Amino acid sequence: MIRERTQIAIIGAGPAGLLLAQLLRIAGIETIVLERQSRGYVEARIRAGVLEQGTVELIDEAGVGARMGREGLPHDGFDLAYDGVRHRIDLAHLTGGKRVMVYGQTELTKDLGDAAAEAGAPAIYDAADVSIHDADGDAPVVRYRRKDEDAEISCDFIAACDGFHGIGRRSIPESALKTFERIYPFGWLGILADVPPCSHELIYARHERGFALASMRSLTRSRYYLQCPIDERLENWPDARIWEELKVRLGPEAASAMTIGPAIEKSVAPLRSFVAEPMRWGRLFLAGDAAHIVPPTGAKGLNLAASDVRALSRAFIAFYKSGQSALIDNYSQTCLARVWKAVRFSWWMTQLMHKFGEGETFDARVQGAELSYLFGSRAASQALAENYVGLPFDGPT
Ligand code: RFL
Ligand code: PHB
Q: Of 271, 200, 252, 188, which is closest to residue 224 (Cα–Cα)?
């Protein structure tokens, strides 16, 4: 049996776990990060692409923003397309100069993984059978298996950053947790291709055949999504069919500027809203997707993980540096206030942009009216822009 001791045991080496470890490391707090998968597997998962300005600032504060500063693409706006009309949401103009950054989650995870390795404290990858013990007492323990040897970490606190399917949230007794969920009746078919984007900014399109999104990872790599049935099979979508459908849904201007090429990744993701309350049980803290999921329409998932980690790192730092536990005690309440606003925004944008039924329904008419209002009203556009660039981290609770 390997026995170890650390201040904070972190489960999960996704963006939340790695960023938390990095923020604590530079504050002189010890952590051990346990990850079920290999480093290669974690870094190859194609997911988020849009970072709020506050997330960018946090990554800089963590000392891992250099490559993002060189290679990331700052975006001042995006387009909404409806009924053949494209309307630009000028983020910078509507929010007093705020913008977002297009930088892939894969790249951020690599930068964080490199920083940990350079500091001589890489995550423990391929950690099997991770389990949590005594989190409601004073001496929590995490057990796992490493190359067929059993290991045990004793620690002061445990941060479960192990995503929606992790064991962190499941280790909390059901009676201590309240959960809220909405499952949407469709998914997103995503495609990644090494071709230049069809527009220099993102296009979110509401089309009678369903939602489509044109995004990117760089000036030579495009990321596109199509609303599809929840049980869609990838075999039904050869590359040629995806490109044709994107052209129809994104409209003639995007179609004429679209370069097509072979897909280097293709997947279907379900859409879900989910929140678990509270985000703490004794000495166990949930952060990121372990505590909440939002549909990707508002580009909020990774950004919420970053704001949880910001609050949790500040709480641990206050505890170790000045013995204050107020931030630890308020962690769940502080996070949930911002989480629910992002859940609301992601739900609203999903409702607005997707096809929910066939034909000329009441809901479709209301959607049309809301989009037309949005295109014509500065107040409505401003509310969208303010949420998209990210609400303040330390807003009212
Ligand atoms: P992750 O990334 O799921 O990482 C959790 C890690 O924990 C590990 N793990 C375990 N380790 C040890 N023991 C166990 N028992 C374990 N169980 C799990 C896992 O292997 C994994 O490495 O959660 P984290 O760190 O909270 O990060 C959250 C983000 O990944 C997620 O919110 C975003 O990707 C969501 N998202 C987007 N967010 C944005 O902010 N902007 C976007 O543009 C955006 N686009 C997206 C998205 C998510 C998508 N999908 C596929 C769901 C687009 C898509 C299509
Ligand atoms: C992406 O590029 O993967 C992306 C961008 C914006 C979203 C969701 C996903 O709203």
A: 188
Ligand nearest to the Cα of 75, by number: 2
Interacting residues of 310 by C-beta distance below 8 A, sequence separation 6+? 23, 58, 393
Q: Where are the domains of the chain?
A: 2-76+99-180+272-359
Ligand 1 proximal residues by C-beta, below 6 Å? 11-17, 34-37, 42, 47-50, 105, 127, 130, 161-163, 166-167, 188, 190, 269, 288-289, 296, 299-303, 305
Report the predicted TM-score, pTM, of the whole model to 2 decimal places. 0.97
* Helix, strand, or coil (residue 9): strand
- 2-76+99-180+272-359 belongs to which CATH class? alpha beta
- The pLDDT tens digits of the residues spanning 182-237 come to 999 999 999 999 999 999 999 999 999 999 999 999 999 999 999 999 999 999 99
- DSSP secondary structure letters along 224-257: EEEEE-TT--GGG--HHHHHHHHHHHH-HHHHHH
- Buried/exposed 287-322: b ≥16 CB within 10 Å, e otherwise: bbbbbbbbbbbbbbbbbbbbbbbbbbbbbbbebbee
User: Contact at 8 Å (CB) between 77 and 92?
Assistant: yes
State how far the Cα of 123 lies from the Cα of 113, in Å rounded to an integer. Answer: 8
Residues forming beta bridges with residue 60, ordered by sequence position: none
Residue 299 gets the label, from left (phi > 0), alpha (psi -120 to 50) or beta, of left
